[in-house]
Design brief:
Layout lengths: L2 E2 L8 E7 L4 H9 L7 E7 L6 E5 L2 E5 L1 H4 L2 E7 L2
Antiparallel strand pairs: 1-6, 2-3, 2-6, 3-4, 4-5
Length: 80
Amino acid sequence: MEQVLTTLKPGQQAVITRLVTDNDTMYLKLMEMGCTPGEAIAMERIAPLGDPIVVSVSGYTLSLRKEEAMHIMVGNIKLN
């Protein structure tokens, strides 16, 4: 089942399935940050107001704005 990255709860892990955007700049930015299809990603923390979020991907910790994270679709979710 595929869903948006922002639906994960802290401690949950998933695999990036695809990036959903018509904006080439956003697509390239996410790819450069290591958010590539097939890559494992884990939700680490969510700010009290929901923005930004902190994830682990490609061997490092990454802070993403909710607007950016909405472009990342994930699947194979592991419950904590």
